[in-house]
Amino acid sequence: MPENRYRLPLFPLPIVLLPGAVMPLHVFEQRYREMVVDVLKTDRNFGLIFHDWDEQGPFLGEEGRVGCLAEIQQYEELEDGRFILIVRGVGRFAIDEGLDQKSLYFEAIVTDYEDASAMRGEEMEFRRGESIQLLDELLDLLPDRPDHLHGLSVRSELSYSLAQAIQMEFPWHQRLLEIQDEGSRLERIDQVLRAMIRRGGT
User: How many helices and strands, by DSSP H and E, does the chain display?
Assistant: First the structure.
């Protein structure tokens, strides 16, 4: 099996994890407790995939769906078997082949989901600088600069850092996750920043 095609446990949730983001998770359902026990024995990775059970119905592991690879950074197992996790987004994947469940939790064969952007070097650095400038314009309208926005720099995958800084609905974040071009992700974020600036930062 090619290195970028691998079997991955899946945790469908109505939330979106972005690469580079850190997120707490409370794992209480039995099948996902089993998943956590299993992944802690290996590389501590599982796939967090956006799924709204009320809106989308049963999770079917459809081919092509994109999620974020979550790595367990810290964990605590409670007396009743529940887990408190701190996970970090470390990459993206797309479902290549759904699998029959051999365990209680979902699994799939997935492939790495990477950018196909042609923008490189100074061009990309300039593009990221434009987005940072917009963010600074917005922050100048606020009475206090949020602590988590200190130190943002023109670096790789700036789009994900900016996306975490603005409050948008999870389907919006999911669409951003699916874009395979940093410049296009930044343009999508810039549209939101410009709209917020026009409203005076509210």
Answer: 6, 6
Which residues constitute the domain of residue 185? 121-198
Which of 67, 95, 112 is at the close of a domain?
112
pLDDT profile of the chain (202 residues), mean per 10: 79 95 95 96 96 89 94 96 96 90 88 82 84 87 62 66 87 96 93 89 59
Helices (H), the chain: 30-40, 53-56, 121-139, 158-165, 170-178, 182-198
Q: Write down which residue in 112, 132, 164 finishes a domain.
A: 112
pTM: 0.87
To 10 degrees, what angle do helices 182-198 and 170-178 make?
A: 150
Query: Which CATH number fits the domain that encloses residue 85?
Result: 2.30.130.40
